[in-house]
Design brief:
homodimer, D-amino Acid Aminotransferase, Chain A, domain 1, 9-stranded antiparallel β-sheet, alpha+beta, Rossmann fold, globular, Dna Ligase, domain 1, 3 domains, 4-stranded parallel β-sheet
């Protein structure tokens, strides 16, 4: 296929104004592009560094259409964009990653079904609509599992751990009729994420797998590269390439996996740059943000090779007030997001440290 | 001394809107600062990525005073700022690097005198005011030398190579009464620049020396590290520390030197981030732009250690239209400046390539 390569000075449109949008905007600028942010918030982290911002609701179809019409390509930094809004954007302009990837990742049942159909291992899953379907599913999973809303869950929100002693009625009350799935428990050793890029011409480039440690369901630290056997590393690359190709993907795709005795099991995918990929900014020649912009701009992919081993640590809430703690650490780079208020658990920044 | 450490969200004020201002603004953003640009041009490279711009002349003292009053620290990306303007800025706020460094670097006679007084080797130089002083100077330099205006020269402009056959009257006509110096010719092997940082507490950190190749008086390629003997490398570090300390410097100081049979000879200094330092963006943990912002913001210096060898190539004029030439080069990163018009010789961007 012929790809339309954007020229320096053309405009990248980004839906969403958070830290991912901010770092995408900074990467756009390094490549000479102009950046236009669309988000409802005034003075968002991304707007602070972008040439232009449209402040409007994600449901405002007129504003979205006008925005899409005024930029040269549209991308997004979060996956919970309403379907009507995406339809409006795609009617006006190229949206990358493609709408199908967004739709699949927005719904845990569709996501798991899609991944499993490619022959890629996922945790056993069951469609849950009521107490009967939940009881039937639990009979197959030994009375245990994790109940998750099909849509809009993140960082542990919208999830209930179920054991034989759980009060199912109370949990379903909390669920309040939202469509859900029950996932079988996975006995895993470690969590590893795969960050993969695919360009408009179909080339795929994987970063080295990244090992993640969570605290309170929020990413705490990432290490690149993850310690994986040669077999698992090959499986990781195959999974990443298979998913990116099946979705006819353009941009950065993040894939969260569990390392188990039976190999890698995919937990979920995110059709965007990802917190665990922040480490690529300082460990690799071309980090995930630049890589994403290159791909959606119709450029060939950059070199994802790591020049250094590295560790990333998220700065949550008031941890950002203690930057001096990092002053004497060698080979560190601090990245902050321009957020005014350090609410508990809020992602305020991260620190990448190269490891000798 | 106690240093006032700026907090994330505070505002860096930058005088000048070119590519150096742009890359300083991007580095500010990575550290969570807000950036306010002051420059006369609309839609400058720096403004495109900054939160705010004041569009006004560099001689507009009212606008400068208001600007300085509205930001938390002032820095600059070029050295030809009028003395009155700097005086106005320093009356309102901290200006880093200090005004003295700017004054010294603005005048080749003051600059050479200052450097020589520190016991650092420079090319022989003579104050030139008229034909008599020029003739007297040439008698001491074997009838040869380079006549340079004391102020405002760059990239070979304002310079005349003089040999015994030169028409001195014609050259002095071109000089048109501008104060000038005659510099003795230097027989040098290579050109090496030293990029050094000093923080507000007086700590000094040098980058590895960088070897430069010019074409038509404009920087073409830089390589990090320069090939220097242990003795010359030690001399380089001593020169850099001595100059930064003598100027009570805060920020990045660039020092251009010649490698000669007698050791390093300083050609000139620039009180700012420097084109030859662009290579540190991708070869070192903390590049020159972030390092400058850290220093002027009262932060401790970042780690200047190189994780890779690297080469930088400037993209001049329409070379920027041939980006595809770099597509297949491994370990490269392209940096573009958001300039609309690719005039001949204009610095449009640069490419950093890591060398295995």
């Amino acid at each position: 296929m012929t790809t339309n390569r954007l020229k320096p000075g053309q405009t990248i449109g980004i839906i969403g104004g958070g830290q991912l949008g901010r770092m995408l905007a900074l990467a756009s600028a390094e490549l000479g592009f102009t950046c236009h942010i669309y988000c409802p918030e005034e003075n968002s982290p991304a707007s602070q560094v972008a040439h232009q911002t449209t402040c409007a609701a994600y449901e405002d179809l007129d504003a979205l259409a006008q925005f899409a019409d005024s930029v040269d390509v549209v991308t997004y930094e979060f996956e919970n964009i309403p379907a009507d809004s995406i339809a409006t954007l795609t009617a006006q302009n190229t949206v990358s990653p493609p709408a199908r990837a967004l739709a699949v990742s927005q719904d845990r049942l569709d996501e798991k079904t899609f991944i499993a159909a490619l022959g890629i291992a996922v945790a056993g899953f069951h469609d849950i609509t009521d107490l009967d379907s939940l009881t039937a599913a639990l009979a197959q999973t030994g009375g245990q599992g994790i109940l998750k809303t099909r849509r809009f869950g993140y960082d542990g929100k919208g999830q209930w751990r179920i054991s034989p002693s759980s009060d199912l009625t109370a949990i379903l009350d909390e669920l309040d009729g939202q469509p859900a799935i029950l996932e079988a428990l996975i006995n895993f050793e470690r969590e590893v994420s795969l960050i993969v890029a695919r360009d408009a011409a179909g080339h795929v480039a994987s970063y080295a797998p990244i090992e993640n440690v969570h605290k309170n369901h929020i990413l705490h630290q990432s290490t690149l590269p993850a310690q994986l056997s040669t077999d698992l590393a090959a499986q990781a690359e195959q999974i990443a390439e298979s998913l990116a190709t099946a979705l006819d993907y353009v941009g950065i795709l993040a894939i969260e996996t569990f390392v188990t005795a039976d190999g890698l099991i995919v937990n979920e995918i995110a059709p965007r740059v990802h917190n665990s990929g922040h480490i690529t900014q300082d460990a690799c020649t071309c980090g995930q943000f630049e890589q994403h912009i290159r791909a959606i701009a119709g450029w060939p992919l950059g070199d994802p090779t790591a020049h250094s081993k590295a560790m990333m640590t998220n700065l949550l809430g008031d941890e950002v007030d203690d930057l001096a703690a990092w002053d004497s650490a060698p080979a560190t780079r601090v990245h902050l997001y321009g957020k005014a208020e350090a609410k508990p658990g809020r992602k305020m920044g991260h620190v990448n440290q190269l490891i000798k």
